[in-house]
Amino acid sequence: MPTTRTASTHWEGTLFEGAGKVTLESSGLGTYDVSWPSRAEEANGKTSPEELIAAAHSSCFSMAFSNGLASNETPATSLDTTAAVDFTPGTGITGIKLTVRGVVDGIDNDKFVELAEAAKAGCPVSQALSAVPITLDAALA
């Protein structure tokens, strides 16, 4: 049975002068400010869609990689993953770089990299970012 997680954004004003707030509804973890300048220039204490994608990707990859390592009978002691999402105004998201460093007993670097590549390919967020159907329900309030 699938699970659904939700977040919502309330936006006021134009793209360049306006601002919004994104709320993580499923977890109730909080509401965060977003704006064009925080997306295209300096973060200045606000988040962006790309930062939220980076959070989703780094955590999903870490879960998938942890599972792959455990299935290889070489469970990780620790994994530290960073996802860097590049955004170019006028073009969009131009790339995502995953960087992982792990403490794993009983494995060599080649096998570590092989399993990391498999986790990157199998991670549901990686798959979603490559080609997932997006549906839209739009109506005036």
Short description:
Helices cover 35% and strands 30% of the residues. The chain is of the alpha+beta class.
Spell out the blueprint of helices and strands.
Blueprint: E1 7-12, E2 19-24, E3 30-34, H1 36-40, H2 49-71, E4 76-88, E5 92-104, H3 109-122, H4 124-131
Antiparallel strand pairs: 1-2, 2-3, 4-5
Helix pairs in contact: 2-3
Distinctive features:
two-stranded antiparallel ribbon, elongated
Give a quick account of the main beta sheet: strands, pairing sense, barrel closure: 3 strands, antiparallel
Shape by Cα distribution: elongated
Write down the oligomeric state. Answer: single chain
Q: What structural class should be given to the helix and strand makeup?
A: alpha+beta
- As laid out across the biggest beta sheet, the strand order is 1-2-3
Question: What would you note in describing this structure?
Answer:
This protein is an alpha+beta fold and 141 residues long. The chain is built from 4 helices and 5 strands, in the order βββααββαα. The protein has a 3-stranded antiparallel sheet. A two-stranded antiparallel ribbon has the order 4-5. A hairpin with a 5-residue loop joins strand 2 and strand 3. Helix 2 crosses helix 3. The model has no long low-confidence stretch (mean pLDDT 91).
